[in-house]
Amino acid sequence: MNTRMRRAAVAVAASAMAVSLAACGSAKESGDKKDSSAAVNGSAIKVGLLLPENQTARYEKFDKPLIEKAVADLTAGKGEVVYANAKQDATTQNSQVDTMITNKVNVLIIDAVDSKAIAGSVKKAKEAGIPVVAYDRLAEGPIDAYTSFDNEEVGKVQGKALLEALGDKAKDGQIVMMNGSVTDPNAKLFKQGAHSVLDGKVNVAKEYDTVEWKPENANTNMAAALSAVGKDKIVGVYSANDGMAGGIITALKAANLSPLPPVTGQDAELAGVQRIVAGEQFMSVYKPYAPEAEAAAKMAVALAKGDPIATTATAKVDSPTTKGVPSLLIPVISLTKANIKDTVIRDNVYTADEICSDKYAAACATLGLK
Q: How far is CA 202 from the centre of its chain?
């Protein structure tokens, strides 16, 4: 892990996580000690980490190295992270869980490709005495703990930003809503949050649930919306993440819209931040990955040792199959031109030089980023 990423883990955790997760706590505070045949003494813990895909930059660039660092810190360097990426294939992820069970990991951290499809594999792990932490997405099945962001709040933040960008145009024009994949429970919450803000204040001309969150699918959907609605009638686009925003903006440019209507996003991907600098994308949602990764690692290490866990931000969350899951939800930040310096640059997620490549140098200079 490079120096910049280590600084990011420390800086973001300090600034964005006002509450701490105790790896161990009294039974009175956090429930009875969990019995597990995988429980280990000492710090030689084997953590199975399963991430859902590698198209979104965050998983390989942030989540994986941050979790690896946190596990190393919590185990004095004795813990091992065994990693697998499902590349957006639920069947592959289920096979990866089987392999992790065969390899006798002590605990699993799973960011599910498909929250329902993973339930059987979570049950298998539990039957093998391996506790499971649901990471970023609320997996179904008998999970032991969960950490993510306040996903309904993400949608609300996006919706509020879009209304701000639209101003008076919200009353007369029409918007397109580009939601995420139906297999992702977070996508449902993003949509729910956005609708709670937008309904009654804008006219939604077209709305899509985008297969596998793929930018190319968002591009196809946007092109269809432009054809059906008419490019001159679309005043804004709700996009659930930055990757899809890229595909949407490509379609808007192909239709020769000028100026581009405001487009939302999420994840503060480098390309998304650069589009914000250039004025092509209105906003993104900055999700500080360090505290989320740290929480998952603390939960996993405690569970692997058979220790109780405690959370102080969000006490319990219910999944469709499991009630009262001990959970920690991390707050999010609306990222616009106005606060790039005070968020992703301050927290060492990106340097000004990374954002302000030659293509964006002039726009960066206008914003005072160089």
A: 26
In contact, 318 and 324? CB cutoff 8 Å: yes
Contacts of 125 (CB under 8 A, 6+ apart): 97, 100, 101, 108, 131, 132
Task: Please state, in angstroms and rounded to a whole number, the distance separating the CA atoms of residues 223 and 101.
Answer: 44
Among 45, 49, 88, CA closest to 303? 45
Q: How far is CA 332 from the centre of its chain?
A: 10
Q: What is the pLDDT of residue 198?
A: 98
CA torsion through residues 194, 343, 85, 319, sign: negative
Which residues of the chain fall below pLDDT 50? 1-38, 312-313
pLDDT at 39: 63
Q: Please give the pLDDT value at position 57.
A: 81
Q: How far is CA 254 from the centre of its chain?
A: 29
Cα separation, 180 vs 212, whole angstroms: 7
For 92-114, the pLDDT digits (tens) are 999 999 999 999 999 999 999 99
Give CA torsion, residues 293, 299, 301, 302, to 10 deg.
Answer: 160
H helix runs in 128-214, sequence order: 151-166, 169-172, 185-198
Please, are residues 133 and 108 in contact by the beta-carbon 8 Å criterion?
yes
